[in-house]
Write a structure and sequence with these properties.
Helix content is 43%, strand content 18%. The relative contact order is 0.10. The chain has a six-stranded parallel β-sheet, sandwiched between helices. The protein has a two-stranded antiparallel ribbon with strand order 6-7. With 379 residues, it is an alpha/beta fold. The termini are far apart. It has two domains: 172 residues, Rossmann fold; 159 residues, Dehydroquinate synthase-like - alpha domain (Dehydroquinate synthase-like, alpha domain). α10 crosses α13 and α11 crosses α14.
Length: 379
């Protein structure tokens, strides 16, 4: 008997820039890894409808940019589709795969995805299953996607009433974070995107959490230097975890970056998209932070600091969906079962041991969770 162990490395670039399609900005050329000896790179641009509407000249800018750099880029097309959480379904993926077929894209082509996190999830998944993987360049356009989802290695869609039930782990070829796209975001989307930064700070970085508390009001403005620092810091914490945790494709049961998500994913699904992901995670973090206090980890003052931060930002700490019954049981508790199934049958819940550090627990007391829901409603 002989056993051979293989190690297959992967790498991708995360680029920070502004006005990516200004003809003098070479960041896009860096992303496609051009050089004088390479042939033209085929590029198909897939754009979320809201971005196309808010940036009326984007189509022309991209065509002008690719024309100016036509020595290195072959412009295949510019397609616009409706995004949002509701686009994460098999029918939409089939439609996108058909577009790839119509444009005759191959594994040497680039799919340029411009939009928010849900849109990038769905188009990215379609790209990973076409020809066993097309090269995707993500250009995220929201705070949440720039600091979290787009810089990671996941692609997924929803199915069978489960969030991200069907998906792949497939690193992008590159990610380009362009601050200019944030300037057209509504304040609701800006604030919602802050939640994932609070999440990662609570379990990994006390100093960063304290910085967020001190700068909470300044983070609500799209063009503030504080928001840009926040996005880069949060993205780097997520990138560091992917690169250094030893588990980039989440083969083990522990999922520290899913802190606050067992309830959040279920609430998001129950709301039919009316709750933004960050808003659902805000509620989920408040639930799990209170549970951490119940177990003797967080102090009362730490819990109050967390709750007050969300309230200062204008993020929800409670939603009436927490009282919805299904077959005589609170429907949100199905999120615990979904989480257990997602983790391979054994429940692993990440909680803050103290602010800036985390611990894993393996069961949840539903009776006490009900008390937490009541407490959060009173707050």
């Amino acid at each position: 008997m002989q056993t051979v162990h293989l190690t297959v490395p992967f790498s991708y670039s995360v680029i920070w820039t502004k006005n990516i399609f200004n003809k003098d900005n070479l960041s896009f050329l860096d992303a496609i890894d051009f050089n004088e000896s390479t042939k033209k790179q085929n590029c198909l641009f897939i754009v979320e409808n809201t971005i196309n509407d808010l940036h009326e000249n984007l189509n022309c800018q991209i065509k002008d940019y690719t024309s100016y750099h036509n020595k290195y880029i072959k412009f295949l097309g510019y397609e616009v589709f409706k995004g949002g959480e509701l686009c994460k379904n098999l029918h939409f993926v089939e439609k996108i795969c058909k577009v790839f077929k119509e444009y005759k894209v191959c594994r040497h082509s680039f799919i340029i995805i411009i939009g928010g996190g849900s849109f990038i999830d769905a188009i990215g998944f379609a790209a990973t299953i076409t020809h066993r993987g097309l090269r995707q360049i993500r250009i995220p356009t929201t705070v949440l996607s720039q600091n979290d989802s787009a810089v990671g290695v996941k692609n997924a869609i929803n199915a069978f009433n489960n969030k991200n039930f069907i998906g792949t782990f497939a690193p992008p070829f590159a990610v380009i974070n362009d601050n200019q796209f944030l300037q057209t975001l509504s304040q609701r989307y800006i604030i919602s995107g802050i939640t994932e930064g609070i999440k990662v700070a609570l379990i990994k970085d006390l100093k960063f959490f304290n910085w967020i508390v001190l700068n909470a009001d300044k983070l609500k403005t799209s063009d503030s230097k504080e928001l840009q620092y926040f996005i880069e810091k949060t993205a780097n914490l997520h990138i560091s975890h992917i690169e250094n945790s030893g588990d980039p494709f989440e083969a083990t049961a522990a999922r520290p970056l899913d802190f606050g998500h067992w309830a959040a994913h279920k609430l998001e699904q129950m709301s039919n998209g009316t709750l933004l992901h960050g808003e659902a995670v805000s509620i989920g973090i408040c639930i799990d932070a209170h549970y951490a206090k119940y177990l003797g980890y967080l102090s009362t003052s730490e819990l109050e600091q967390i709750i007050n931060l969300f309230k200062t930002l204008g993020l929800p700490i409670y939603n009436e969906l927490l009282t919805t019954l299904k077959n005589g049981e609170l429907d949100v508790f199905e999120g615990i079962n979904d989480f257990r199934e997602h983790l391979g049958g054994e429940l692993h819940i990440t909680l803050p041991k103290t602010i800036g550090d985390s611990i894993q627990i393996f069961k949840l007391d539903k009776d006490y969770l009900k008390k937490i829901f009541k407490y959060l409603k009173e707050l």
